[in-house]
Amino acid sequence: MAAEEKAKKRGVGRPRRLEPEAIVATARRILEEEGVAALSMRRVAKEVGTTPMALYHHVRDKDELLMLTLAGTAATVPRPELPADPRARLLAVTLHMHGTLARMPWVVEVLSLGDLTDKGALWMVEEIVGAGVECGLTPVEAVRAYRTLWHCVYGDLVFRRAMERRAEEPDRKRYFPDMLTDADAAELPHLAALADSWAELTEDYDVARQLGAVIDGLLAQAGRPE
């Protein structure tokens, strides 16, 4: 009996064993359901049944937690077969990036923090920069071209996500372009003329066509002086 009591006392206060997979799964669920703002070390610790201090023994900080959550995400999506032509390859990789992230809005939000990424996704950056160089851009121009394409992809996805959220509120008042009236024609002639067809024009937006136009503009800079 005394031995049993001692064993129980030794067990009191012993921290629960944390599985890395459980930590990552919990963080990913929070990100998918509520976004980056809802994720914190304290929140994850509570949901896995431990204390923030114990969690810090496994994960250094929120950034490392986000990196662990991103790790391996790109590998879940098969790489497409890429064309040999470098201009076509630029467009194919950029569209693949856009399509992949469109299915993972939480990843877009994490990437918006700046320098966090899934190392397994860097093959897309490598392909874009390499194809740019093959098309005649300098390495510096190719990196800047990648940045421009990423901004186009990111901006489009953020805007689409915002419009999806707003569409879930059917009673919400729509301001643009409804705010435009005939009285605005003098100052805003083009917008006023297009106001009635604006929704149709934006719904018909062709991402591939527009990214192709951006790529052509970027490649036209090859060899031009700064």
What report would you give on this structure?
The structure is a single chain. The chain has 226 residues and is mainly alpha-helical. Helices cover 61% and strands 0% of the residues. It has helices spanning 2-11, 20-34, 41-48, 52-56, 62-70, 86-102, 105-111, 122-134, 139-167, 189-194, 198-203, 207-219. Helix 6 crosses helix 12 (207-219) and helix 8 crosses helix 9 (139-167). The longest helix is centred in the C-terminal third of the chain and has 29 residues, at 139-167.
Q: Could you give a quick summary of the protein structure above?
A:
By secondary structure, the protein is mainly alpha-helical. 61% of the residues lie in helices and 0% in strands.
Largest sheet entry: none
Secondary structure tally: strands: 0
Uncertain runs with pLDDT below 50, 5 residues or more?
Answer: none
> How would you describe the oligomerization state of the chains in this entry?
single chain
Average predicted confidence as pLDDT: 89
Which structural class do the helices and strands define?
A: mainly alpha
Question: How many angstroms does the end-to-end distance come to?
Answer: 84 Å
Radius of gyration, rounded? Answer: 25 Å
Q: What's the overall geometry?
A: flat
Strand content range = under 5%
Count of helical stretches: 12
- Proportion of residues in helical segments: 55-70%
Order of helices and strands: HHHHHHHHHHHH
SSE inventory with pairings:
Layout: H1 2-11, H2 20-34, H3 41-48, H4 52-56, H5 62-70, H6 86-102, H7 105-111, H8 122-134, H9 139-167, H10 189-194, H11 198-203, H12 207-219
Relevant terms:
226 residues; 61% helix
